[in-house]
Amino acid sequence: MDPFSIDAYRPEEIANRIQKLGVVKSRNDPLRVLALSLLAGAFIALGAALFTVVTHDAGELASGILRLIGGLAFCLGLVLVVVAGAELFTGNNLIVMAYVDGQVTLKQLLKNWSLVYIGNFIGALGIMVLIYFSGHWQMGNGAVGAHAVMIADAKVNLTWMEAFSRGILCNILVCLAVWLCYAGRSATDKILAVLFPITAFVALGFEHSVANMFFIPAGLMAQTDALIAATMAVPVSEQLSISGFLWHNLIPVTLGNIIGGSVFVGLFYWFIYLRKQKNP
Q1: Would you say the pTM of this structure is higher than 0.85?
Q2: Residue 108 pLDDT more than 90?
């Protein structure tokens, strides 16, 4: 590889870069991994908060246009993750490339995923609590908070198969965004690489486990506010509860994210570009 080239890395070079990074990630100091995971959860939550504000008042905009604008707003989260640096569970599903090549053990893989998942959850909840105390949901006489509740309510009312399938589709696009980032050589390259896949998954209504660690707890918290409750056009369902959050959304979405990122991106590209290096 030419370090002075301005051309994008070729797909086989991307595969090698991601595999080597997977080895590094699996061996990093746990405290460092946890700190970076907290940041990633917070970054994704900030993108989710921006999405909520941008989409809360549709006005005369067509639904598709509003989804597109919301998707662009949500990109803030992954841009911060890939440019500023952080550990995101869904992106770390690509560590499976190093695992199947024998460079990372199953214990190292699961340890990284578990630690990053927990850190992402705490980081997302931390931003949610700050948003709650900031009065942010009172914007528009409670309309922003009411929209946060409706987003959460819609997510917990998906069927298990819908949530699982949308989780797969989401992380295919997220991991492809990460993959494209490793084709670039500059911050600008990475930002542009993120925009289209992430905008697509949000506009298409797919499900991201870390984003939902903000969206659904945000709805649970916002619905307790009297002003927001009075603003609600329709009552929320009984599914909007902690058990509904975990069983009807977070669990199936997380499983779907793992399959989408690990199998449909990580294992496919390992098979195409790295398997031949091992067995010429």
Answers
A1: yes
A2: yes
